[in-house]
Write a structure and sequence with these properties.
Elements lengths: L5 H8 L5 E2 L32 H8 L11 E2 L13 H4 L10 H8 L5 E5 L2 H11 L13 H19 L4 H5 L15 H12 L3 E5 H6 L1 H12 L6 H10 L8 H7 L4 H22 L10
Parallel strand pairs: 1-2, 3-4
Helix pairs in contact: 4-8, 8-13
């Protein structure tokens, strides 16, 4: 999920000699955007030339892997988990999403290993809101806890209103969800369940909280999950210590923008708590309760 440490985790995974980054980089968005003629920038939006499947294969294929010894390609496209933007217009007769991205990937690569990293959804939302506001995303907004307060209340009201008319899955995949206030992405159970139903034991859900505190054991669990040889613990420890965290907010930025207000936290905790409980029960893992007080 966005703002859950995926960039940092990805950098640590492709350090392994048997794991490789595609030539197109960490994220390609082919399945969720490029093949449909949609911009890979979720905030700018707009239409672009559709990418063909042949073009996609050439872009990530073995012919372009010169200089990379890895035998397994690691695709870090976060939008694969949740993005079905525009499905209502493509399937106007359908009352619910007619497919999931999990179904697409399972159809073309059924033995894929799926890794999902998530964090406390309240913290994820605030981080996401502050991060996607720069020139790279077509915005020039001075976002803060103050602007977050108005935006989150508006989107929460709209999402709850959706739930009075439709089921949770439709609302989570709705194209009406605000791209600047991605409240829906924290309802992890909807997306995790779609993928788990198809990939089962070939799917692993990682806690950012665990990874941040103890990256070494988490990485070794992932290497074992991917069935690649365990690297030297000393070498991996040195690499982790020698590299800074990727895409993390700087201390100066955190001080400037301020922390999420307590009343905002409580409002969002009350909203997310039942979905956290459902996820924890589904995965049989109490770490995902987040134990709000």
């Amino acid at each position: 999920m966005p703002k859950c440490g995926s960039t940092d985790l990805y950098s640590k995974l492709i350090w392994h000699p048997d794991l490789a980054k595609p030539p197109c980089g960490k994220e390609n968005h082919f399945w969720t955007r490029s093949r449909l003629g949609k911009s890979t920038n979720h905030l700018k939006g707009g239409e672009v030339k559709k990418q063909s499947f042949d073009s996609f294969l050439k872009q990530i294929g073995p012919a372009n892997m010169e200089g990379q010894t890895g035998s397994l390609l690691i695709d870090g496209t976060q939008s694969l988990l949740w993005d079905l933007l525009g499905w209502e217009a493509r399937y106007p007769q359908s009352s619910k999403p007619p497919y999931s991205n999990a179904e697409l990937i399972h159809l073309v690569a059924p033995m894929s290993k799926i890794i999902v990293i998530i964090r406390d959804p309240v913290e994820r939302l605030y981080s996401d809101y502050l991060y996607f506001n720069g020139d790279d995303y077509g915005l020039h907004e001075n976002r803060s806890a103050l602007s977050f307060d108005d935006a989150v209340r508006a989107e929460l009201g709209r999402f709850v209103g959706c739930l009075t008319k439709h089921n949770l899955r439709r609302c989570c995949y709705s194209s009406q969800n605000d791209p600047k206030m991605r409240l829906h992405l924290g309802v992890y159970i909807t997306y995790v369940r779609d993928w788990y139903q198809l990939f089962g034991e070939n799917m692993m859900v990682v806690s950012l909280e665990d990874y941040s505190k103890q990256p070494l054991p988490v990485l070794y669990r992932i290497y074992n999950f991917l069935q690649v040889p365990e690297p030297s613990r000393d070498d991996l420890s040195i690499y982790i210590k020698s590299t800074s965290k990727k895409n993390a907010r700087s201390k100066s930025d955190s001080t400037k923008r301020g922390a999420c207000w307590r009343r905002q936290e409580k409002l969002l905790q009350d909203f997310y708590q039942p979905y956290n409980l459902e996820l924890a029960e589904y995965l049989r893992d109490t770490r995902f309760l987040y134990n709000y007080k």
